[in-house]
Amino acid sequence: MNRARLLQLGFELGARALGGRSQGAWFATAPDGAPVVLKWSPGETMADRYAALLPGLDELRARGVPAPEYLHVGAFDGGTLSAQRFLPGRSEANPSPAVVESMARCIAAKAGVGGPRPAADQRPWGAFVVRTLTVGQDGSAMHEPLRTWGRRSAAVVDRVEALGAHADPGWFPSDGLVHRDLHTDNVLIDQGALSGIIDWEDACAGDHRFDLVAFAFDLDGHDQPIWDVVDAAGFEPQVLRAYVALLTLKCAASAILHRPEDVVRQLDRAERVFDRYDV
């Protein structure tokens, strides 16, 4: 990060924001003295995503969702620099039932909130989901790692592809905002209460309920009744099966590529959740 250029913009750079799964973030001070988090993304086209996203985050804050306020978005060193107001708190691997309940309310509050399309090719949410199930997405939810890791993983991807072959893009609502990376590292807790939901850069227009299933995947195994919360959310069965399949694919592929010690746990959960929802 170019300190001299940042000073010209009025930002005094601090330490890199390490921990969790976050990449490319730094603490800084804004021109008005407020603490902020700076992020740099390659390519200036990211500014277009922010332009479509930030009004939705403004609406979420008005609805009581602790989403960060963005104080600056602009071109910087061949990419896009954003400055979001610092939110207090830390992430917890197993938040309290009260925080989980607050998260469920925040996810429900994203209904009717707009955002950018989910992919660079402008494919809408339903088509994005079906394509991921049938052929995958580059860099995320890829089929090949499961296809080649072993028989158990290949059987999982077979079930995912079979479901995707019969899925219809029209099944999936697209009138809400999807965070797309809603795990506990992106949930901040301060003095026992939910204080922030961060890392919205991949958020898009789609079915906001997807985030509830994603959050359930991250809490699975922590003795939380999170799947009961999912069951009570009113999903259409075919939609819930598709989201379970997509997240299974994403989590298992990520483990194979980056956390090999976690692969067996991911496959155990895949088989268990698939059986629960008849995938």
Secondary structure elements and their pairing?
Elements: H1 3-9, E1 12-16, E2 25-29, E3 35-42, H2 46-62, E4 70-76, E5 79-85, H3 97-108, H4 125-134, H5 144-149, H6 151-165, E6 176-178, E7 187-190, E8 193-197, E9 204-206, H7 210-219, H8 226-231, H9 237-258, H10 263-277
Antiparallel strand pairs: 1-2, 2-3, 3-5, 4-5, 6-9, 7-8
Helix pairs in contact: 4-6, 4-9, 6-9, 7-9, 9-10
Summarize the structure.
With 279 residues, the protein is of the alpha+beta class. The protein has ten helices and nine strands.
Description:
With 279 residues, the protein is α+β, with helices and mostly antiparallel strands. Helix content is 43%, strand content 17%.
- Which of globular, elongated, flat, extended, rod-shaped describes the shape? globular
**Total strands:** 9
- Would you tell me the structural class of the helices and strands? alpha+beta
**Beta-strand percentage range:** 15-25%
| Strand/helix succession | HEEEHEEHHHHEEEEHHHH
Write out the strand line-up for the largest beta sheet, numbering strands in chain order.
1-2-3-5-4
| Separation, N- and C-terminal Cα atoms | 46 Å
Query: What is the number of helices?
Result: 10
User: Taking Cα atoms only, what radius of gyration do you get, to the nearest Å?
Assistant: 19 Å
Mean pLDDT across all amino acids: 93
Helix content: 40-55%
Give the biggest beta sheet.
5 strands, antiparallel
